[in-house]
Write a structure and sequence with these properties.
CATH topology of the largest domain: Neuraminidase
Number of domains: 2
Distance between the termini: 53 Å
Low-confidence stretches: 1-22
Order of helices and strands: HHEEEEEEEEEEEEEEEEEEEEEEEEEHH
Largest sheet: 5 strands, antiparallel
Number of helices: 4
Helix content: under 10%
CATH superfamily of the largest domain: TolB, C-terminal domain
CATH class of the largest domain: Mainly Beta
Length: 366
């Protein structure tokens, strides 16, 4: 008879304690999944990755953008109650994988907020203006041109503080991918007609050769990009291609304690530079949480702080914001679930679930 994983973890905890080992926070949370405050209406096929768009004029009108991963896929748009905004959904995408957002991008002589999504089977990025979701990419931005592995998966956007230059960092499926230069970076520019184009900048990033690297996330304020080498760990690099040692790996952490796949990465950012990096421990239905700022004197050391089990099952992608939104005064955490939905969690509930090991943004200001 095979015992349930939760029973095995529960039984193993006393032995770990007796041996003087640190308790596994994933095991400690195994019996108590955190309930979301909102579950979205289901997508048609297979949800994968969300992004939170903050409407700065009216926070109550903020939106969640999420991918529906299929050969006949879509980019869904939800309100804060989890309702699909049918007039904004973009359909007919060829296996859209991951999505990210950038604010105040120069476009057609003005400024616009843009959602970028990887269109995996078409080997390109698509870009849509928020909140109307009008396309602004002339049909798509090709990526990984001239390479064997072109099935794009993860995307993270970086806006360089000095000059406002926008970059897209893209990952891909593993078949035929190189062990070095796994990620490609593109500068995104308006070609003068109100259409966004991509200019190749660099290839960088190591890969263990185990499965693939899908999730990519940029901490724009601190200037770092992180990626989940799925069966190895979380890798960290400079996001600015002009930074000193731009291609040097700054850290690789979270190499132990994951059930199997390292997946979605998101950040809870305090204004003082502190905060949290949340990484999906996919097969354990937990998120492992690491310090955003590193440790005192060591900004590239990211030891595990805690873990929280969520009701979202087998979660791939996530996003987090500290913005105060209706129903989520301390911030919002959104995670994909394999029942074709996205789950909305209040950051305050994560703080409570982890016994106060986390803080909310209000506390960081005190």
């Amino acid at each position: 008879m095979r015992l349930p994983l939760s029973l095995i973890l529960f039984a193993a905890a006393p032995f770990a304690a007796a041996a003087g080992l640190a308790p596994d926070p994933d095991a400690a949370n195994a019996a108590s999944p955190l309930a979301p405050r909102v579950i979205t209406e289901p997508a048609r096929y297979d949800t994968d990755d969300p992004a939170i768009w903050i409407n700065r004029a009216d926070p109550a009108a903020s939106l969640i953008i999420g991918t529906d991963k299929d050969a006949d896929g879509a980019l869904y748009v939800y309100d804060l109650a989890g309702k699909i905004q049918t007039d904004k959904v973009v359909r007919g995408l060829l296996r859209p994988n991951n999505v990210d957002l950038a604010y105040d991008i120069p476009l057609a002589g003005g400024r616009a907020d843009i959602a970028f999504v990887t269109e995996r089977h078409a080997h390109r990025l698509r870009a849509f203006r928020l909140p109307d979701m009008a396309p602004v990419d002339g049909g798509g931005i090709p990526v990984f041109e001239g390479e064997t592995a072109r099935d794009c998966m993860g995307i993270a956007l970086y806006t360089r503080p000095g000059d406002g230059a926008l970059f897209a960092i893209v990952s891909r499926s593993e078949e035929g991918a190189p062990r070095e230069g796994y990620l490609h970076q593109y500068r995104i520019v308006d070609d003068g007609t109100g259409t966004l184009r991509g200019l190749f900048v660099r290839r960088f990033g190591s890969w263990s050769g185990r499965k693939e690297i899908e999730s990519v996330a940029v901490d724009n304020e601190l200037g770092y990009v992180y990626c989940s080498d799925e069966r190895f760990g979380i890798r960290k690099y400079h996001a600015d291609p002009l930074a000193d040692d731009a291609d040097k790996e700054l850290a690789c952490f979270g190499t132990t304690g994951f059930a199997q796949d390292h997946e979605g990465i998101s950040f809870y950012k305090n204004p003082d530079g502190t905060g949290y990096i949340l990484v999906s421990n996919q097969q354990a239905d937990t998120f492992r949480i690491f310090p955003r700022e590193g440790t005192p004197g060591h900004p590239h050391e990211h030891p595990l702080i805690t873990s929280v089990r969520v009701a979202a099952h087998d979660s791939d992608g996530s996003d987090t914001t500290t913005a105060a939104l209706p129903g989520f005064p301390g911030g919002l955490f959104v995670a994909m679930s394999t029942d074709r939905t996205f789950h909305y969690y209040a950051w305050d509930d994560l703080v409570h679930a982890t016994g106060g090991k986390l803080r909310r943004i209000d506390d960081a200001r005190k």
